[in-house]
Structures are given as structure tokens and as C-alpha cells.
Design brief:
With 156 residues, this protein is mainly alpha-helical. It is 56% helix and 4% strand. Helix 1 runs antiparallel to helix 2, helix 2 packs antiparallel against helix 6 and helix 4 packs across helix 5. The two termini are 25 Å apart.
């Protein structure tokens, strides 16, 4: 998961090595689960003091990164619960191809993330929301049929 590379430096090598080993042999839903579980394990340990530490992402604190990843998980839920009959038009390489903000757009995105992430008065509120959402997106992904379309199994 790209976001894990930006997490507090001391966790970086272990998480990336674990994820690389796991995801190489996993189906997409299992790879997603492995990535979310690795990041969730870290999120579960964050206290308020550590939430303000810088990450490897210039200008981002730990809480900014957690909020950013929460937004990604929410987008995943929307995608997995929006069925379509059309073939997929993006993959892991081309996903961000059309997103090219100018300097002002990028600065606005960073500011939005910082402002909203700092609105959580206690970090455990943000962490719980992330953990609940991550669990939901992983469960939704495990119910999705992989055939190039977003589809749902009847039992999910």
C-alpha cells in the first residue's frame, strides 16, 4: 500500500517487506486485506502525541495520513457497492493517470486533509473510524466477484 511508505520511519521496512511477501501470492481481495491489516495494526497503536509526528510524506503528520487513508477506504466502499456492467477502465498502474492537480489544487488538497484531520479532538476517534471503515472495505472486497466488473455476490 503506497500510504504505508509514508508512515513513521521505524515501521516502514517491516511493513513493506511483510506486504511484499504476502501480496505476491494473493488474490486481489486477500492482498487488499493484507495491506489494510498491516496499516490497521499501526493505526491501532497511535496515541495523541504520536499522531502529530511527521511522516515520510512532506508536510503530513501521522493523523493527516490516517485521514487520507480513511478517505481512500471510503472511496473503496463506494466503488465496491456501485455495480456496473462496463469493463474496468483502470488498473493499479493507470488509476491516478487523470489526476494531475496544479500547485494550487495540490495545496488545497493538503490543506483540506490537515484541517479535517485536526478537527478530531482525540485521535482515537479518527483511528476507530479508520479501523471500522477499513474492516468494511475489506469485507466488501471479499464479496466482490473479480471479472473486470464491480459485482456483488448475493449473500453479501
Amino acid at each position: 500500500m503506497v500510504a504505508s511508505k509514508c508512515m513513521v520511519q521505524r515501521w516502514q521496512p517491516r511493513i513493506l517487506a511483510d506486504m511484499s511477501k504476502q501480496s505476491a501470492s494473493l488474490a486481489p481481495a486477500e492482498a487488499l486485506r493484507a495491506a489494510y491489516e498491516a496499516f490497521s495494526a499501526i493505526v491501532a497503536t497511535i496515541d495523541d502525541e504520536r499522531s502529530w509526528l511527521p511522516t515520510g510524506c512532506i508536510g503530513w503528520s501521522v493523523r493527516d495520513l490516517i485521514f487520507h487513508c480513511l478517505c481512500d477506504a471510503q472511496r473503496g466502499l463506494v466503488a465496491l457497492h456501485t455495480p456496473t456492467d462496463r469493463a474496468a477502465d483502470r488498473d493499479a498502474v493507470t488509476y491516478w493517470q487523470d489526476w494531475r492537480p496544479d500547485d494550487v489544487g495540490a495545496a488545497n488538497g493538503r490543506r483540506f486533509t490537515r484541517v479535517v484531520a485536526s478537527m478530531f479532538l482525540q485521535i482515537d476517534q479518527l483511528c476507530r473510524l479508520y479501523l471500522e471503515t477499513a474492516t468494511a472495505v475489506v469485507n466488501a472486497a471479499s464479496c466482490a466477484l473479480v471479472d473486470g466488473h464491480a459485482r456483488r455476490k448475493a449473500m453479501c
